[in-house]
Design a protein that fits this description.
Strand order of the largest sheet: 2-8-7-6-5-3-4
Radius of gyration: 20 Å
Strand content: 15-25%
Largest sheet: 7 strands, mixed
Number of strands: 13
Number of helices: 13
Shape: globular
Distance between the termini: 61 Å
Helix content: 25-40%
Structural class: alpha/beta
Length: 364
């Protein structure tokens, strides 16, 4: 060898492809590709971030004590059982890096979040893909995939990119069926969009069980995607292990203070949730009304809608037509969804515009 050679499991990773922000010809149009909050960021969070500019020469608190305290108070959980990271993505990587490695297996569901595969391969573990049940998590399929090599199971709830939801009863059944040494990671990036009665019980499982980790993010309903603030909650032994490999300064002072402020803006959170529920429901109805043209909306409880194209018009054609009409959405052929588009729930104007563009395209 006359040059450094990357590990083979690293070279097997398909790099993460983020949602686009511009069209093929460089136009900035309505961005419905990354599940961002259409209302932007809470004003109190913007002010908190701006005020932090007076301290740019300082390192942030490596323990994130203030943020962990705010999360603790908001969700009623113990601050010393919280780990933070650069978005929940880093927390997912910390979970894989702490509890899996060469010769181990990590399970996730087909049509699951792309980071799960990357996190598994990054540490040399073997990714195992469990079949879905009509684009949703199939608990029996996951349990059937468990072997003596399994170390981590990733489940997003609601799931990304499908938006499907797994009930509290099914999550409990999944946990009960896993060996005690297998870590169940419940990725709850979109949980704030759920109605209260749809709580899947993840935080309670993480409080009472030794092998459950819940991950959350400030990137979605809190409108802080650019600041990359995420966190996880679980048994002290899990958190202690993850702290050993966590980057000491995952985000800046401004990001941490903005996240604390955003947590306290209940009106913004409720407005975002209510708007999302109304226009997601409306959009799904409009899509299903084009069922005779081959369109189908997969039931979603997230802030996006997966639309399947099963007729004469393909998802790729729709992706390009929507881009031309001024709407960038997410086409995911790399995740086995060449026949679908993931469309963020945007403003009323944006959702009406997308529907009109789809109607024109399919001749509805």
């Amino acid at each position: 060898m006359n040059a450094p050679v990357a590990k083979p499991w690293v070279m097997d990773i398909a790099p993460y492809i983020p949602g686009r922000a511009t069209t093929d010809d460089g136009r900035k149009v309505a961005k419905l590709s990354s599940n961002e909050n259409p209302f932007g960021t809470p004003e109190v969070a913007r002010r908190a971030y701006a005020m932090a500019a007076a301290e740019l020469e300082r390192y942030p608190d490596a323990s994130a004590a203030d943020l962990r305290g705010a999360i603790s108070a908001h969700y009623g959980i113990e601050a010393d059982r919280i780990v933070y990271g650069t978005g929940s993505d880093e927390v997912l990587h910390l979970a894989a890096g702490s509890f899996a490695g060469l010769g181990d297996e990590i399970i996730y569901v087909r049509y699951g979040f792309a980071v799960y595969d990357i996190a598994a391969r990054r540490v040399g573990a073997t990714p195992v893909v469990a079949p879905d049940k009509d684009y949703a998590t199939d608990v029996d399929a996951i349990l059937a995939a468990v072997t003596d090599k399994t170390r981590v199971v990733f489940v997003a709830n609601p799931n990304n990119p499908t938006g499907t939801y797994t009930s509290r009863e099914e999550i409990a059944r999944l946990h009960a069926g896993l060996p005690a040494h297998v870590l169940l990671v419940l990725d709850q990036a979109y949980t704030e969009y759920l109605d209260p009665e749809d709580d899947d019980g993840g935080l309670e499982l993480a409080r009472t069980q030794t092998n459950v980790l819940v991950t959350r993010t400030f990137s979605k309903i809190f409108g802080l995607a650019s600041e990359r603030v995420g966190w996880g909650y679980g048994h002290p032994d899990l958190i202690a292990a993850m702290h050993r490999i966590r980057a000491p300064f995952a985000f800046g002072i401004g990001a941490g203070r903005a996240a604390i402020a955003a947590l306290g803006d209940s009106a913004f959170i409720e407005r975002s949730r209510s708007h999302n529920k109304q226009w997601r429901g409306w959009f799904a109805q409009q899509v299903d009304a084009m069922g005779n043209k081959g369109l189908r909306a997969v039931p979603s409880k997230a802030n996006f809608q997966l639309v399947l194209f099963e007729g004469d018009v393909t998802a790729e054609q729709a992706y390009k037509a929507l881009m031309e009409a001024g709407y960038i959405v997410r086409w995911l052929p790399g995740q086995g969804l060449a026949h679908g588009l993931r469309i963020t729930i945007g403003t009323e104007q944006e959702m009406r515009g997308v529907v009109e563009a789809l109607r024109t395209l399919v001749g509805a």
